[in-house]
From TrEMBL:
Upper classification of the organism: Bacteria, Pseudomonadati, Pseudomonadota, Gammaproteobacteria, Alteromonadales
Origin: domain of life: Bacteria
Subunit structure: UreD, UreF and UreG form a complex that acts as a GTP-hydrolysis-dependent molecular chaperone, activating the urease apoprotein by helping to assemble the nickel containing metallocenter of UreC. The UreE protein probably delivers the nickel.
GO CC terms of this entry: cytoplasm
UniProt organism field: Paraglaciecola psychrophila 170
Major localization listed first in the record, in broad terms: cytoplasm
Described function: Required for maturation of urease via the functional incorporation of the urease nickel metallocenter.
Alphabetized InterPro entries for the sequence: UreF (IPR002639), UreF_sf (IPR038277)
Entry's Gene Ontology molecular function annotations: nickel cation binding
Any Pfam family matching the protein: UreF
The UniProt record lists the keyword Cytoplasm: yes
Keywords from the named record: Chaperone, Cytoplasm, Nickel insertion
Subcellular location(s) per record: Cytoplasm
Name assigned to this protein: Urease accessory protein UreF
Record bears the keyword Disulfide bond: no
């Protein structure tokens, strides 16, 4: 897999946007992005386990390349761009538009495994929202009760209810993805703890550029196709030994 050259940048967008949040808002962001959030993200490798099995990912450098490529060529063009539309739909109280973009997100999942992970995590987050006593989600019962909801849609609704701004929720979504992938790679490659921390620092430096890129995408250009990722997640279903869910 050939990744485009991505310059190292200081995540200015993330810094500027998070400083506008109240201490409570920042704590809600940490809560939403925490590995302890009971949505089951830790049980999916998003194709990484098969990539390791095939030797495509086998050291810190190839791990960084795999995650970076997916962040900038898939997450940015799909999930981050959709977060923008989903947030706008919520601000405008446009449930029809929210439903349309949710369906668009689900249609972008290129394998049954990626679709399963997306829906399973989305439903888990919606169940959690209904059970958190401090949140008044009655106005959004229609959205929470969606038969199939993408994780990115559930994330957008959660962030909206938590009072988070767009750049903040996009930054948090990127962090949740990077953190989960590095945690999976730590077990699979395997990586040492210091190597993993170095990767988190290096990959998070790409978040600001990914967000800026996502927010410039037109509606008709939302979506991405990464054949190797799609094949890895599909072939993972029949992989002989697996640590992660399929």
């Amino acid at each position: 897999m050939e990744a485009k050259s991505i310059p190292t940048v200081i995540p200015i967008l993330m810094i500027e946007s998070t400083t506008k949040q109240s201490p409570l808002g920042l704590n809600r962001l940490l809560q939403l992005c925490s590995a302890n959030l009971p949505v089951g993200g830790f049980s999916f490798s998003q194709g990484l386990e098969y990539a390791v099995e095939m030797g495509w990912v086998n050291n810190p450098e190839s791990t960084k390349e795999w995650i970076s490529f997916n962040l900038n060529q898939s997450i940015a063009y799909t999930d981050l761009a959709l977060l923008n539309r989903l947030q706008n739909a919520l601000v405008e109280d446009d449930f029809g538009s929210f439903h349309t973009w949710n369906q668009h997100a689900l249609a972008c999942r290129e394998s049954n495994e990626l679709y399963l992970a997306d829906v399973a995590m989305g439903k888990a987050l919606m169940r959690l929202l209904k059970d958190i006593k401090s949140i008044d989600s009655q106005h959004y019962v229609q959205l929470i009760s969606e038969k199939e909801i993408s994780f990115v849609s559930a994330f957008a609704l959660s962030a909206h209810l938590f009072g988070l701004e767009l750049n903040v929720m996009q930054s948090g979504f990127c962090w949740a993805y990077i953190d989960n992938q590095v945690a999976a790679a730590t077990k699979l490659v395997p990586l040492g703890q210091t190597q993993a921390q170095n990767l988190l620092f290096e990959l998070s430096e790409q978040v600001a550029e990914a967000i800026e890129q996502a927010n410039q995408i037109d509606d008709e250009n939302i979506g991405a196709s990464l054949p190797r990722l799609a094949m890895a997640s599909a072939w993972h279903e029949t992989q002989y030994t697996r640590l992660f869910r399929s």
